[in-house]
Every structure is written in structure tokens, then in C-alpha cells.
Design a protein that fits this description.
This is Lipoprotein. The protein is mostly beta strands. Among the domains are: about 150 residues, no CATH class; about 110 residues. Helix content is about 5%, strand content about 45%. The protein has 1 helix and 28 strands. A 4-stranded antiparallel beta sheet has the order 3-2-1-28. The chain has a 4-stranded antiparallel beta sheet with strand order 4-5-6-7. The longest helix has 19 residues. The chain is globular.
Amino acid sequence: MTGVRNTIQAAVLVTTAATLTACGSRDYPGVDLDVLPADAVGAISVGAVDFVQSDIFNQNRSLTFLFDEGGEVVGRIEGDEIHATQALASPGRLVTVSAHAVTTMTPTSRIDFGIDESTVQAAVNDPATGVATVWFNGGRESVFVTVAGDGQAATGSVPGLVDAAAQCGDRVVAVARDVGPADTDGRYVARLFEVPVGGDPVERGNWLTGLDFSAASAAAVCTPDGGAMLSLHRSPPAADGSESGLTLVRTDPTAGDRDARPIAMDGHSPATRRGSLTVVEDRLYWLNWDGDVLSVPLDGPADARPEWTIPEAGEGTVASVTGTTVAVLDPAQRPPTLTRYDLVSGARAGERVELAWLAEVAGTGTESGNNTYAVSDLDLLPVPR
């Protein structure tokens, strides 16, 4: 798809979205933003808890609120509802998504690239280059939008449903599993795609896999040299019925070679928080749903090492990793409070930040009356160097 066609598509769909937005939207905290505020330090994405097909024809919203160091909301980015809305932050840039637009915000501009989607499947970025890619569940295919370092967006698709994806510099790497009848052993074809920025997807390999060996987090991560994609996969339950474990899969994005190493979990939950995979030096770190921070070496025996446990971890707690900082938020707390920790040591970083305005949104009913708003994503904004 050429840049001219992209521009036309964006103009038509964003016009449609603007028409829909004008009807029936309630007032939310913060002003609608045209540029990224200089004092914004974090972003909180809010959307409907459950996917309800009829809601996409109503006026439910997907919202990303930006806040400053004092916790005050400094503005919002608002659009029509999309399930599992997320944001991607890099120095001086924020990419958000709603049903009819992938929005790129910088301190001097806002670009809305038009789409027509209902569910985010995966969202990945490379903060060093600013390149970001959002994958959408298109049924039998996965549609993607990539925002390049210069802010220009391009779209394309691959067959199947994306199971794991990572942004390795100026290329995105993704594994997509075919949708359709399985073979006689209950396996499906998985395909490895490499997509250069602005280019077409190239299939680099394929293999057979079962549904019980799927990514624990659709957002994978690359090694520092960009030479491999690292993903965590849920392992099939043991023969005695005990809980499934995790396997570290290292994939060569060019040759298509894969190396799978089962992780010795030592009783820790394999349930992995989305987008928490982070490489620090020679170890892969991640967060599980119990609030444990775990790590394994990139090479050698894959024994999970417990690093520390998030004190506030509990049902409903939202946690994310930006660089080597863990951000933790309990939207049900009054007032909702953000706490930051060092990923490696667990030491608290800075003061707690109260977000009193969030109580006006999280936990309240949606415009359709069929759903409830909840925090779906939390991001700290890296400081431009």
C-alpha cells in the first residue's frame, strides 16, 4: 500500500470516526489533545471490560489519559471503542489505538491513521527507534499498522492469528497460527513473518503446533542485538494434571530457526502479565499475575529465579514495565495510586502518585449500559534524551 493510499484511507475513516464521536459522548477528565504535553509522564488506557459485539455500534469509548508528575490529568486521547486498547510509549512519542484510528502524538503533532477494527491482538514497539506496530484480530487474518520513526504509517496483513510479536529495531517479527481445521493430531500451522518498516511481510519459516503451546504474552521481546525474538509459551499440563509451565522460545527472525527451553518454575505461576517481558543484560525478566518478578538467563539452564514480589499485587492490580521501571496501579484503591519500582532490585523509585481523577472513569458504566470501564494498559513515558 502506497503512502498516498494510506493518506486517503486515514482521511475517510477518521472523518467517519469524528462524526460518530460527536454523538452521545459524556465528559471525561482532561482536554482532548492535539499534541503530546511536555509535562506528561505517564499514560493510562481505559476501555470496556468485556467484548460485546453489539457495543461496537454504540458510543462506548477507548480513552488514553495522560498525567503529570503530580498525578494531575493533562489531557486525553479519545476514540470509538476497541477491545484491549493499549498505548506504546517511546521518547517524545505516544501511539494509541481506537476502533477507527491509530494515533501518533508528538510534542508538535498528532497524526490519526484510519482503520476499522474491533480487537487489538498485540502491540509492540522499539523505544530506541520509535517504531511501533499494532496487530488486530481480523478473524482468519491479522491486520497490522506500523508507525515508522518519522511518524508515517503503513498497513498490511498476514494469514492466521498472531500469537507472539516483537519490534526488533526497524522490523517487526511475528508468529501467526492458522485459523481453521487442525490436522489429525490436533495441530495447526504456525508461520514466522518478518516485516520491514514500510515493506511487505516475508514468511521466514513454518511448523506445526498445538493450541496448548501458545504465547503467555502476545508481546514478545528482542535480544539487544535484534538477532532473536524471545517469547514465553505456556507448556501443556503434565500427565498428572498439574499446572502447565512455561517454555522460553528463542526464534531467529531471518533464518526461522527456533530453540525451546522448558523453564523450571519452582511453583511460581506461569500466568504472565502482558507486555512485561524485558531483557536486562544477560537475563529475561517478566511479571506474573501473582505479582512475582521472575527472570531466567538468556543462555544456559532455564531456571526461573524469583527476584522480588510487588507489595500491592492483587486482583485488579495493573502493572507494566518501561525500561527498567515497574509501574503498579490499583484502580480500585481510593484514591487510585501509582507506585514505581526498580525492575531488578525491587527498590521503590520516587514518590507515590495519587490519580484521584481516575475514580471518575474506572469502574463506571459505559455509554451502552452493557459494560464497565476498566484500566487496560499503563505506560510510563520515557524521557527524551
